[in-house]
Amino acid sequence: MKIKVHIFLLTLFLGFSASLSTAATPGIVGPKVHIADNDIIVNLSITDVSELETAINSGIEKEITFTVELLRVWKFWPDEFVVSKKIRKTIRYDNLRQQYKVSSYDGIKRIKRNFKNYNSMKNWIFNVRSINLANIKELDLNDYYVRIVVESKNIENLPVVGFLKYFIPKVEMSLAKESQPFLTGDIK
Questions:
Q1: Per the domain annotation, does 3 fall within a domain?
Q2: 11 in a domain, yes or no?
Q3: Would residue 75 count as lying in a domain?
Q4: In the chain, how many domains are there?
Q5: Collapsing DSSP states into helix, strand and coil, what is residue 49?
Q6: Per residue in 101-143, pLDDT tens?
Q7: CA angle 157-160-163, nearest 5°?
Q8: CA-to-CA distance for 106 and 6, rounded, in angstroms?
Q9: What CA–CA distances, in Å, run from 47 to 25, 30, 33, 151?
Q10: CATH of the domain at 132
Q11: Whole domain around residue 155: which residue ranges?
Q12: Spatial contact of 149 and 178, defined as CB atoms under 8 Å apart
């Protein structure tokens, strides 16, 4: 009897681990950095968000935080932090109205929208366009690069028994990516 239980648990474990290994992991496309009118403009997006999609469609409210940082390259020293911009996007699926309620906040303005279609909401929530990071006239002539950090977390507290909620991580997904160094700045 014990052997049958062990065989059952082993097959259950192997089946579960095989399904986890075939799941696509999210990734960052970009950062695409270009200079327009003396401003450093950054564009980025997230791909392979199937795990987030199932959680969002089940009605769990999510917050996705995009942090875009500009760093100056130094030789033989740690790189210097110059400036950072943070964009917070929240998503909630309303089962009664069958619509997605999303908002975006960049520290200055808040935008709220409602979507009926998941694909149009997906394009709006997982893409960040035209982030004005810095003016090159305020920078010294040097090599710089852009670092992107994307984090996802639940906003709602899930019903968990007692103290077990302290063992569940607050940040579910954390991705980071850096651009290639580029030369910019103003000769002073």
A1: no
A2: no
A3: yes
A4: 1
A5: coil
A6: 999 998 889 999 999 988 888 888 888 888 898 888 888 889 9
A7: 100
A8: 52
A9: 9, 11, 18, 14
A10: 2.60.40
A11: 24-184
A12: no
Whether residue 170 contacts residue 120, with contact meaning beta carbons closer than 8 Å, is answered with no
> Taking the mean position of all CA atoms in its chain, how far away is CA 94?
22
Coil, helix or strand for 68? strand
pTM equals 0.77
Provide the residue type at 75 as one letter: K
Q: What does the CA dihedral 130, 135, 139, 145 come to, rounded to 10 degrees?
A: 10
Rounded to an integer, what distance in angstroms lies between the CA atom of residue 45 and that of residue 32?
10
Q: Is the separation of the CB atoms in 186 and 37 below 8 Å?
A: no
175 lies in some domain: yes
Q: To which H or E segment does residue 125 belong?
A: helix 118-125
Per the listing, tokens 């709006």 go with 124
Confidence band, pLDDT 50/70/90 cuts, at residue 18: very low
Token pair recorded at residue 97: 């109205």
What value, to the nearest 5°, has the Cα angle with vertex 78 and ends 76 and 83?
Answer: 135
60-100 confidence digits (pLDDT tens): 888 999 999 999 999 888 989 999 999 999 999 888 888 99
